[in-house]
Specification:
Elements: H1 16-29, H2 31-36, E1 38-41, H3 48-59, E2 64-68, E3 74-78
Antiparallel strand pairs: 1-3, 2-3
Length: 85
């Protein structure tokens, strides 16, 4: 039986919302974000729909404070609870 090479399919590309959440995750999880328990998030090229979904998700996240800035960006503040460990 002849060996047939397997087709290599590309992994699916992340959606625009997934790219936005990955960017925010990188901000939160970098050394400065971890130490300060605060990050500043700019909307950048995020669509209105993606930004609204992100803000809705943040609103449902316990222990997260979202401060809206005049320029449309947000600041996120959180505390680490020792009950989480």
């Amino acid at each position: 039986m002849a060996h047939m090479p397997m087709a290599h399919s590309q992994p699916p590309q992340p959606t625009s919302y997934e790219r936005l959440t990955m960017r925010v995750s990188r901000l939160v999880n970098n050394a400065r974000g971890v130490l300060d328990k605060h990050v500043h998030v700019e909307r950048l090229a995020a669509s209105s729909e993606d930004w609204a979904l992100l803000l809705e998700a943040f609103g449902e996240t316990e222990g997260l404070i979202v401060a809206h800035r005049d320029d449309g960006s947000i600041d996120l503040f959180w505390r680490v609870s020792y009950d989480d460990y």
